[in-house]
Amino acid sequence: MNNDPWTDPDPQAGDFDADLAPLDPRYVAHHEGDRKAKLVITVKAAAGRRVRSAIREEVQLLAADESDREPMRVIREQMVELAPPPAD
Questions:
Q1: Which residues of 11-46 are buried (b: 16+ CB within 10 A; e: fewer)?
Q2: What is the CA radius of gyration of the chain?
Q3: Most buried residue among 41, 50, 52, 88 by CB atoms closer than 10 A?
Q4: DSSP for residue 79
């Protein structure tokens, strides 16, 4: 029995609820039917998890390096300035 819904050939309803909970509902599309779509969604979601993991590791490496902290602070400030205002 496979306990990982990301690799399970037959994931069940609710298996991805914890992974989907942090997503902004504005960017989530719901579709009915077509069991073949499950594989596509799983592959894309798993790829997204790998990308987030790689980014997290890179950020940790940058944070640990004193010479990278100032450039990262500047980038963080620029991102705050460019970000849209939070929706209420």
A1: beeebbeeeeeeeeeeeeeeeeeeeeeeeeebeebe
A2: 18
A3: 41
A4: H
18-22, 36-40, 71-75: segment of lowest average pLDDT: 36-40
Contact present, 5 and 12 (Cβ < 8 Å): yes
Distance, first Cα to last Cα, the chain: 43
Residue 74 has pLDDT above 80, yes or no: yes
Residue 16 near residue 5 (C-beta atoms within 8 A): yes
Distance CA(6)–CA(61), nearest Å, equals 27
Model's pTM, two decimal places?
Answer: 0.32
Tell me: the pLDDT tens digits for 14-25? 888 888 888 888
Domain boundaries, the chain: 48-83
How far, in Å, CA of 61 to CA of 64, rounded? 5
